[in-house]
Structure formats: structure tokens, C-alpha cells
């Protein structure tokens, strides 16, 4: 009850379930238990708005990867369904947890990002939105281009979608996150989102420390994020608009 589920995953599941197609219809056997009736792989109930319901049992797997038996209890029928359909019916709660941690922020709403805290390989920096402009406030105080913040951090974070959920509401230290390579938090519309990243066995892991969720993601996604704050400055020592310039003084031994 305390796990936030993905609405998109739930809607996708409902759509796919409503479009199940059997490979073959069979005659109902006398001994249903031989087809996995008494020990089903999954039990599925459709409860409709008028309180009626349809129930299905996913029975045994056929030999040779030829599918599974599916009992339609309301119609008293037996079908063979493909392995992909069976896998859909055997999804667990983890499969319905949102595979994204950070929200997608439209270009027109980039100023709703109020703060970004970033720590990678021991180097930390903080970016804050001050009156609609982004500034590095740690380890140095320096204005940075909104485009750089948005394209280098906000967009890549919003685009991270995990391939698989490995743990939900568990102790993430079991996955080695006490030595996380990257820790990022982003505050959008006064709500803070946090993720930690750590290399696993041949893959990259992402954790949501506040919820105890652990995901497996494509390692290439991490390459889109900056290595340090210097990469946000475009090699320029200062970045300010001309309208913000009050005075300019140049000092040289030649004068």
C-alpha cells in the first residue's frame, strides 16, 4: 500500500490484457489438474464497473516453449496462449513500480527547477534557481546558462527509464550503494527527487534511497550527465547578460 505504482504501466497492462489472443482453443478436459488448474502460475480477475467479474487461471507450461494453458472460468473454456502473454500474466508488483525517478520537465517550465545537488566521484556542486536564473552556489558562486543546466542535467535525468526493478522498499545497502558513484537530487515544483547510481555486475544500478527501490538501467544513460561543474561553464570564466553589467574595469601593467 505504501509503494507508488506507475499509472502508465497500469494502463498499459489493462490494454494488453483486453487484447489477449489465444493460439488455440481446446476442449475442456475431464481432469483439469493435469493442465495446472489446481496449481496455476497466475490467477487473474477482471472486475468491471457494474461489479461483474471475469476470472482466468494460467495453468502449466507446454513442453518445447509452445505456450501455456489458460482457463477462462466464466466461459468454462481452455486455451493455449503464447509465452509473451503468459509473462504478462505473471508480472509482479515490482513490474508496476514507476521505472522513472525524475520528472520530465518541458522547456517552457524549466524555471520550476529550483535546485540541483550533484556529487560524482567525490566532487560536489550545487545549482540554485535565483529569480529565474541558474547559479552555481557551491563550490563557487557563478551564473550558468539556463540552456546548459536544462540540456545537460534536467533533460537527461527526466529521460532515465529503468529496464528492470530489482527491489522495492528494501535496504539499498545490500546493493553496494554506500559507495555510490553518483548522487543527484533535483527539486521541481517544491518536490525533491533523489537517485543514486552504482555499477553492478555487468550493469548499472539506480536507487531511489527514500523509497528503497533499486533499478537496473542502461549504462549509456549516465554518459549524458556532466562529469563536473566545469563542463557547464563552456570554458567561460564569467557569464552575465549585458544588462546586468554595472561597470567594467581593466587593469594592466602596460597602462
Describe the structure.
With 255 residues, the protein is mainly β. 12% of the residues lie in helices and 33% in strands. It contains three helices and 14 strands. It has helices at 7-17, 83-89, 146-158; strands at residues 24-26, 42-47, 53-61, 68-72, 77-81, 113-120, 123-130, 133-138, 142-144, 164-167, 182-188, 191-199, 204-208, 213-217. The strands form two sheets. Strands 9-8-7-6-11-12-13-14-10 form a nine-stranded antiparallel sheet. A five-stranded antiparallel sheet has the order 1-5-4-3-2. A hairpin with a 2-residue loop joins strand 7 and strand 8 (133-138). It is elongated and about 105 Å long. The mean pLDDT is 90.
Profile the largest sheet. 9 strands, antiparallel
Count of extended strands: 14
In spatial order, strands of the major sheet run 9-8-7-6-11-12-13-14-10
Kindly provide the radius of gyration, computed on alpha-carbon positions and rounded to a whole number of angstroms: 26 Å
User: What structural class should be given to the helix and strand makeup?
Assistant: mainly beta
By DSSP (H or I, 4+ residues per run), the number of helices equals 3
Q: How far is the first residue's CA from the last residue's CA?
A: 73 Å
Beta-strand fraction estimate: 25-35%
Helix content range of the residues, please? Answer: 10-25%
Uncertain segments of ≥5 residues (pLDDT<50)?
none
Q: Give average pLDDT, whole number.
A: 90
Q: SSE order, as H and E?
A: HEEEEEHEEEEHEEEEE
Estimate the global geometry from the Cα principal axes.
elongated
Amino acid at each position: 500500500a505504501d509503494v507508488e505504482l506507475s499509472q502508465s504501466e497500469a494502463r498499459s497492462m489493462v490494454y494488453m490484457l483486453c487484447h489477449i489472443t489465444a493460439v488455440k482453443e481446446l476442449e475442456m478436459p475431464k481432469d483439469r489438474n493435469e493442465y495446472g488448474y489446481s496449481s496455476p502460475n497466475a490467477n487473474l480477475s477482471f472486475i468491471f464497473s457494474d461489479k461483474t467479474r471475469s476470472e482466468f487461471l494460467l495453468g502449466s507450461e507446454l513442453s518445447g516453449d509452445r505456450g501455456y494453458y489458460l482457463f477462462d472460468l466464466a466461459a468454462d473454456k481452455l486455451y493455449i496462449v503464447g509465452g509473451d502473454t503468459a509473462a504478462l500474466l505473471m508480472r509482479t508488483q515490482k513490474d508496476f513500480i514507476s521505472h522513472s525517478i525524475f520528472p520530465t520537465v518541458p522547456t517552457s517550465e524549466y524555471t520550476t527547477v529550483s535546485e540541483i545537488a550533484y556529487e560524482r566521484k567525490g566532487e560536489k556542486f550545487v545549482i540554485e534557481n535565483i529569480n529565474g536564473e541558474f547559479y552555481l552556489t557551491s563550490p563557487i558562486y557563478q551564473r550558468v546558462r539556463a540552456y546548459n543546466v536544462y540540456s545537460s542535467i534536467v533533460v537527461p535525468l527526466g529521460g532515465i527509464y529503468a529496464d528492470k526493478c530489482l527491489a522495492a522498499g528494501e535496504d539499498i545497502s545490500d546493493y553496494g550503494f554506500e559507495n555510490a558513484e553518483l548522487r543527484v537530487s533535483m527539486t521541481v515544483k517544491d518536490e525533491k527527487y533523489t537517485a543514486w547510481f552504482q555499477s553492478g555486475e555487468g550493469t548499472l544500478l539506480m536507487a531511489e534511497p527514500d523509497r528503497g527501490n533499486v533499478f537496473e538501467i542502461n549504462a549509456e544513460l549516465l554518459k549524458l550527465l556532466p562529469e563536473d561543474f566545469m563542463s557547464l561553464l563552456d570554458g567561460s570564466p564569467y557569464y552575465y547578460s549585458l544588462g546586468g553589467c554595472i561597470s567594467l574595469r581593466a587593469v594592466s601593467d602596460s597602462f
